[in-house]
Structures are given as structure tokens and as C-alpha cells.
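Example record for the data management plan.
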Amino acid sequence: MNERDALLTTAVRAIETVDGDRESWTDEDRSWSTRAAAEAVGEGATPTVFVACRARFAVDRLRPRDPGFVRIVDGLLWRSWIGALLMILSFAAGLLIDRIGSGQSINLLAPPVLGLLTWNLAVYLLILVSSLRRGNKASSEPGPLRRLVVGGLLGSGRRLRQRGVAMPAAVLPKLLSDWSQIAAALYAARVARLLHFSAALLATGIISGLYLRGLAFEYRAGWESTFLDAEAVHRLLSVLLAPGLWFTGSVLPDVDGLAAIRFGVLPATENAAPWLHLLAATLFIVVIVPRLVLGTASALLERRRSARLLGDFTNPYYQRLLHGYHAGPVHLSVIPYSYHPAAATMTGLRRLLGRVFGDNAQLDWATPVSYGEEEALTAASQTDSRGPRVALFSLVATPERETQGAFIRAVRTLAGAGPVLVLVDEAPWHARFDPDPRRLEQRRAAWRAELTDLAELGLIPVFLDLAQPDLSAAQDDIERRLEGSA
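Corresponding structural encoding:
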């Protein structure tokens, strides 16, 4: 999945996992996005293609409804012009650097050339040490400087203004947190590419500036130091300029020759052209070539990571989306026992099971089984659905192991290897009795006690008011029950 699709997918996931009340992004919106993506990609598409297509449809549907949030999402996308501007500024900075001496003289010990050489050698040493310490994790664990830049780039989204955003307040922090984790490795490679290429362009700018100014002015080369004598300067330049000496085939002047061009000594200095060539060659070998190699390697790594974002769809959120696409809508058989649900109960159950089993889940309401007729429950007399079975009870009924318990066993036999969900609707209880929490809990305890022998099979009842369900809490409770249902 490419970077844009991964960001849109992360944004849609943040909405659908945080907006528990489904006010900003309704059940109808979710179902429509799933259907539209399934029709667009056709059968047999990979999970990546389907999930990315669904995210694009969802964001397009959301754009006119909540343009403020969509602008924030778009603002988190990387802008290629940022990297281009940074590299242009690096070259311009090198071109404009003129403080290598005073006037038209070049101090061989002064920045920026020797300072740039020292800095780059220190960077190479740090990269080598980090690689040896982290082993194969070196490419995925950036150093302190990269972590600082990556954090600044990813954290910039936190400073985006939320004016006009209709989404719940918790959606944006969720999006930023998830996207920071997903894109951290990509941004580490991207920052590495920018730093390496910018360093190469800075050195190129310095060399270009030296030669351009050398065409119009005669530079004189020399050196001066408070602490170093000619012999120490000779040793220092022999090390720092060794690559340039090798590349050009030049020979460094001896100690006496260096002593002769010390500022303040007669004859004063010498023409700087040979030294300019030597400095340029050294920068080319030490800075430009290695940085271009490292930048190219980082660019290839960035490209690979950019194309492979969000490849793991084992999360339950994605599994629900993919189940509806690969296996089609889930067909659930709801079998009430001695209970005729009201319209509000049926609507609440439909919304709840849609959250648990996917937006395209289809409910088949079986004929309610009368009290004492649980043995008559057969596949022929009920729905032909092969999906999960839901045994639905009313909390008002008095629980009995020989009746409700026998009915649940019959449903389990009918379901075969499919999951069975036991729901006890509290809506009739709330409609008939005063809202006494203690009495309600006693009633729940009575149900649990009568059905305790079914707990080993994972058939633990879920108590909820289907007329006014707490959808988020009920969804979590049902998913936990299904994990142990046989």
C-alpha cells in the first residue's frame, strides 16, 4: 500500500474505531463504503487493494461533509517540494559561504572546508558505530538527529488547526498517533535521503563558489594558528587532504614550504589555485561521493517502504472488513425463545450485530420457539443460514436449566461448528420494573447460576438492553464471548 492510501486507511480506521456512537460516520456510510469498494475492485482482489479502495471511497464521501478533517488528513501527506527546497537552499548556502579567510586570502585551516570535512568524517564514524551496535536494525532505527527531524515532521500535524472539524475530538489524536507509528520508518529513510543529498549539495556549492570567485579574484593561500606550528599543520593537512592528494596525484609541500606561506611571514603566501584544486578534490572524495551513495541507498529504501506501508491486516478491524469482502455478508440466525421482540429490540440487535460481524451482516429472524418446545428446534424448522446462531431471551423469563439451558444446547447442535451467541434482552425488564440496580443484578446472577454448566462451552450470556444498547460496550462484550464459543 502506497503512502497516500495508507494515510487514508489510517484516517478511516481512526474514525470507525473512535466514533463509537456512529454519529459523524454512520452505519449506512460504512456499509456503502464496503459495497462500493467491493464492486470497484471485483472478486479476487488482494486485501491491500480492497482496503485502500474502501478508504478512498470513504474519504471522498466524507469530504463535503467534514472538509476541515479532510484538510488535516491531506496536510499529513508528504510534500515533495519540501525536499527540493531544502536541497536548493543547501546548494545556495554553500555557494554563498565566503568566510574561508579574510579579504582575498584563503586560510587553509579555516572553515568551511576543513570544518565540513571533519563533520562528515564524524557522521560516517557515527553511522559505522551505530550499524555495528544495532546490527540488522540499523536501517529501521534512526539516530538522534534523524529522530528529531522525523518527530518534527510527523508532529507538525499536531499543530494543525481544528477549526471546522466535525469529527469527535478523540479522532484526531488517534489518527496522529497511529500515523506516527506507521510512517516512522518511512520518514527515517526520507530524512536520511534529504540529509545526505543536502550535505552533498552543500559541498558542491562550496566548491562552485570557490571557483566562481577565483575567476574574478586572485586568492592567496596561507595559514595561521595560535597553537599549531608548521610541523603540526603539515601532519594535520596530510591526514585531512590525503584523499585529494591521492585523487589529483599532488604532493603536499614539506614543513619548510608550509612555514613559508604562514601569514605574516615573508614572502607572504602563494597563489591559491593548487590548493583550491586540492580542497575541491578532497571534498569530492570525502563528502560528495559518499553522500550521494548513502542518499541513493536511502532513496531506494524510502521507495520500498513507501510502497509497503500497512501490509499487516491481522487486526480485528481489518478482519471484519475483509470477511465481508472475501466470504460475502455474514448471515446470522436469530432464534428467540419464548419471546417476541419489539421493533426497537430488533433494530438495536441489527445495529449491534452489524458492528460485530461487519456492515453487511444479514439477520434472519427465525420463528420464536415456545416455552417447553426446545426439542422441536431442527434445521428444517428454522433458517437455512450457515452463519452464527443467536439464542435470544428476555430477562423477564425465569431461567431454568431444563428449558433455557436445553434450548441453548439445541441451538449449539444446530450450529455445528459455527459460533453461538447467547443474548439476554433487558428491555422488557426495564419496561416492567423500577430501575433498581440491585434487583437487576440479582436477576442476572440467577441466569448465570442456572446456565453455569454451559460456561465451559463458552456459552456465557450477554446482558444488554437492546432497545437502548450501549453499542461500544456491548460490542466488546460480545467479541469476548465469541472467542470462547464453540
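Summary line stored alongside the record: The first strand starts at residue 105 and ends at 107.
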